What we know:
Blueprint: E1 33-36, H1 43-55, E2 59-60, E3 70-73, H2 78-88, E4 97-100, H3 101-110, H4 157-172, H5 176-190, H6 210-222, H7 226-232, H8 235-244, H9 251-259, H10 265-270, H11 278-285, H12 287-290, E5 294-295, H13 296-313, E6 318-322, H14 323-326, E7 331-332, E8 335-340, H15 350-360, E9 364-370, E10 391-400, E11 418-427, H16 433-441, H17 444-458, E12 460-462, E13 467-469, E14 474-475, H18 481-487
Parallel strand pairs: 1-2, 1-3, 3-4, 8-11
Antiparallel strand pairs: 5-7, 6-8, 9-10, 10-11, 12-13, 13-14
Amino acid sequence: MFHTAIAPRVRKRSRPADADVPRREEVKFEDVRLYLVERKMGRSRRSFLTQLARSKGFIVEDVFSDEVTHVVSEDSQASSLWKWLKESAPNSLPNMHVLDVSWFTDSMKEGRPVAVETRHLIQDTLPTLPEGTTPTAVATVSQYACQRRTTMENNNKIFTDAFEVLAESYEFNEIEGPCLAFRRAASVLKSLPWAVRCMASTHNLPCLGEHTKAIMEEILQSGHAFDVEKILSDERYQTLKLFTSVFGVGPKTAEKWYRGGLRSFSDVLADRSIQLNRMQQSGFLHYGDISRAVSKAEARALRNIIDEAVRAITPDAVLALTGGFRRGKEFGHDVDLIVTTPQLGKEESLLPSIINRLKKQGILLFCDYQASTFDMSKLPSCRFEAMDHFAKCFLILRLEGGQVEGGLHTAEGDSRGWRAVRVDLVSPPMDRYAFTLLGWSGSRQFERDLRRFARVERQMLLDNHCLYDKNKKEFLAATTERDIFAHLGLEYIEPWQRNA
Ligand code: DCT
Ligand code: MG
């Protein structure tokens, strides 16, 4: 065990003035706590580097404890270092970065903690894993989804499906902490290129708490978890899940209907006291179609339809498929598209014109248009809300089978030759394009962690509109997603690696 009691926080230092060392000891990076390993570094070099870091506003802990976020070592014998670390801090080790001194020197050069990259990491070369476990288990996995590469291949679906049920149930009950914990745990497991087969292989993974591990253990032993089974057979959960599957019905409305004793769609539709709004009416009307997954081929066909519409309005329009399909998903619940034009300001009239065209073509089954409320002078907003302020519309479009390569993804026996599909369009000004593209590409967990990483690790605010540096008090410009990753000091993650 390690001892927190003997680990003083080195926030306020009252050492006597040293003639050689400039006394600029104001802490600039509250969330970063370094620990320099003396082994191989030597006492005097360690003391020199400690003073250097402190003079640049870093917190350097004298004693190793669970407060430490970044361990820096010059020890090239990774195995002995890791052995010592595991003995000293077995529990909090998964949340620490174990780094080569190159990270430290880069950070001193930059005068700020630079982003941790793979080349900085000291990998554990001494796996204490049972036979048959993949050795990648011991590579450091970041607690942030934006520092992990998560493809569509999920090797741990048995666990992540269970966590998703638990998270959703907590969400229905508005219990935020555990909901987020299960989402984070699911996201970590999704990023692993190997399947967890025993609990020992998870000991280096971040974001797996007691409850998550207990569930995993149960699943490993019996194939299912009692808590999950209980939720799945719970009437309230089932009903809320059913109601929220209708377009336009959120958890609040679903809860109200449930409390009113309603349990099925026919209960809702027969209840004369319920006034469905326009969106909900369309949701019920097209329920069969829009609750059915949209295929990649169908998404492409709809992209072409919108492309044709927008090119008829302005030939220099920019159109991008985003959301799940941009991340390489084969199926999605809707089609997400960004449309804009290089002519600043002209994007305002784009969506109304597109909508008009779709209406004339007779394929607009539903439209909820929301004009832009974007105002650069009101940024940065501390309320970094889920929805952005750009002009957008939520549509239901009629898609003809003949327009889809390989045909429609409809139920067997459906001979209509068309189906209804949900399509979302957003139209930011061109200078906001990169932020919108990044924000709408998802996944939700990837976006959440990008924002959290920006805030906690970089003292920056990121949303679909902008990136703001709180230290420099300025907005950082970006024309591509790569620019944004670079501002954040993150390695670029391709869209198909963002399935966190
Ligand atoms: N988004 C977000 N926060 C939200 C809603 C959406 O960051 N509250 C982003 C992430 C994904 C993108 O917008 C599109 O949203 P969805 O269509 O809901 O997600 P998706 O990943 O495209 O999933 P699906 O395949 O089910 O459409
Ligand atoms: Mg989508």
